């Protein structure tokens, strides 16, 4: 039930992003590119002032609200700029005057978010995983929160290090702001625990060019007119994300992903699939007698980016080359941490993780990894 069909005969890409898309979504999108809903128009050609454009935006919003259980007092914005763009933009929107914002810095992306916000605003490290080489997420008991902070920022899954929160920080009256790019819509979300959630689309909900921002309505009062209109959350909320030309194609693809996720059991089922996929790889690591090692604390292991290392770099190079020959591609770790990284986002079927786990076992044994057993085809 709710299994994702392994219906492709193409390489399994374990890239950190852009990620695989489900075959069903690719089919629907291809049809819409040529002929959108039998209108003779392409979805790529719909004018942004048209009824059709407004309909796609409205439908995407209501599907997302249903899927993620977004309360009425939150606004959903479909913006551009990517999560990296919003690192700085969200600070411009949410920090007024001399206030400062708190950051839990847990890895590469948390560091980037902190640095970008710090270009124009006062920011403070409330929790820092650097001393521990980002092998674990500092427990809440070690956080030093500023009760007057404009917000507290977290990165729910650190894509490079392979860390993920399996708990939600309690920041009391300070708005919790989360970069969910790596794990948005891969598990149920308690939206009401957050002030603002944002995510680029190309990992779990479609293609690059779209950044989804979910923001509690009262926070919009902070967005003053010094923020450029296109990136002003309050103005975009008032204009239903149409201050300027919205990334309609990317929104259309996201809409297909929302519907696909709902057809396949919604977010609870997405989480089950994440657990199943990642368990196969962690098991291959844990049973390899130290051939594969991951520095990540067991409790903070990510279900979406599985990071591990081989005994030396030469073996890692051979691993990557042999995997590639089997159609298991884009497994090189983030340059900041090296090693191997398998990204297992929403559209990765269990068969992809199974193929990789089988390959890992064979490679660790020094067996013939070229055998058809591990081939990615079904
Ligand atoms: C990929 C990623 C980003 C960057 O997204 P862009 O769309 O390239 O700006 C930011 N944060 C996290 C957690 C990511 O995984």
Q: What structural category do the secondary elements indicate?
A: alpha/beta
Average pLDDT, to the nearest integer? Answer: 94
Structure summary, number of beta strands: 13
Bound molecules: pyridoxal-5'-phosphate
Radius of gyration: 21 Å
Q: Give the count of helical stretches.
A: 9
Main beta sheet strand tally, sense and closure: 7 strands, mixed
Q: What's the short version?
A:
This protein is of the alpha/beta class. The strands form four sheets. The chain has a seven-stranded mixed β-sheet, sandwiched between helices. It has a two-stranded parallel ribbon with strand order 1-12. Strands 6-7 form a two-stranded antiparallel ribbon.
Which terms would index this structure?
single chain; two-stranded parallel sheet; 9 helices; disordered C terminus; binds pyridoxal-5'-phosphate
Describe this structure in words.
The protein is an alpha/beta fold and 378 residues long. The chain has helices spanning 23-34, 51-68, 82-94, 108-117, 233-238, 248-263, 266-286, 313-325, 350-364; strands at residues 12-13, 74-79, 100-105, 122-128, 152-155, 157-158, 163-164, 176-179, 196-200, 211-216, 305-308, 328-329, 340-343. The protein has a 7-stranded mixed beta sheet, with helices on both faces. Strands 1-12 form a two-stranded parallel ribbon. Strands 6-7 form a two-stranded antiparallel ribbon. Helix 4 (108-117) links the parallel strand 3 and strand 4. The longest helix has 21 residues, at 266-286. The protein binds pyridoxal-5'-phosphate. Pyridoxal-5'-phosphate binds next to helix 3.
């Amino acid at each position: 039930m709710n299994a994702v069909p392994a219906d492709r005969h193409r390489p399994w890409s374990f890239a950190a992003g852009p990620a695989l898309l489900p075959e069903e979504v690719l089919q629907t999108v291809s049809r819409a590119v040529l002929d959108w809903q039998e209108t003779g128009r392409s979805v790529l050609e719909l004018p942004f002032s048209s009824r059709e454009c407004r309909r796609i935006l409205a439908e995407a919003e209501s599907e997302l609200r249903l899927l993620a259980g977004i309360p009425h007092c939150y606004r959903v914005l479909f913006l551009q700029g990517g999560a990296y763009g919003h690192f700085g933009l969200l600070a411009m929107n949410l920090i007024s005057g001399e206030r400062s914002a708190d950051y839990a810095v847990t890895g590469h992306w948390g560091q980037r978010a902190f640095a970008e916000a710090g270009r124009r605003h006062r920011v403070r490290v409330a929790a820092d995983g650097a001393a521990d080489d980002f092998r674990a997420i500092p427990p809440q008991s070690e956080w030093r929160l500023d009760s007057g902070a404009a917000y507290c920022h977290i990165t729910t899954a650190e894509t490079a290090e392979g860390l993920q929160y399996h708990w939600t920080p309690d920041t009391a009256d300070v708005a919790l702001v989360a970069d969910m790019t790596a794990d948005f819509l891969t598990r149920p979300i308690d939206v009401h625990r957050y002030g603002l959630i944002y995510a680029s689309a190309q990992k779990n909900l479609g293609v690059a060019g779209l950044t989804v921002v979910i923001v509690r309505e009262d926070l919009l009062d902070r967005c003053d007119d010094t923020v450029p209109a296109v990136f002003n959350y309050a103005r975009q909320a008032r204009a239903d994300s149409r201050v300027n030309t919205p990334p309609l194609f990317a929104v259309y693809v996201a809409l297909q992903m929302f519907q696909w996720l709902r057809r396949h059991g919604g977010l609870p089922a997405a989480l089950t699939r994440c657990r199943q996929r990642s368990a196969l790889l962690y098991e291959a690591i844990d049973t390899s007698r130290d051939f594969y090692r991951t520095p990540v604390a067991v409790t903070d292991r990510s279900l979406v980016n599985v990071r591990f290392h081989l005994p030396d770099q030469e073996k890692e190079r051979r691993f990557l080359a042999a995997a590639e020959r089997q159609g298991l591609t884009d497994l090189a770790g983030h340059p900041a941490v090296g090693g191997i990284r398998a990204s297992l986002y929403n559209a990765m079927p269990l068969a992809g993780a199974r193929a990789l786990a089988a390959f890992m076992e064979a490679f660790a044994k020094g067996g013939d990894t070229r055998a058809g057993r591990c081939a990615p085809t079904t």
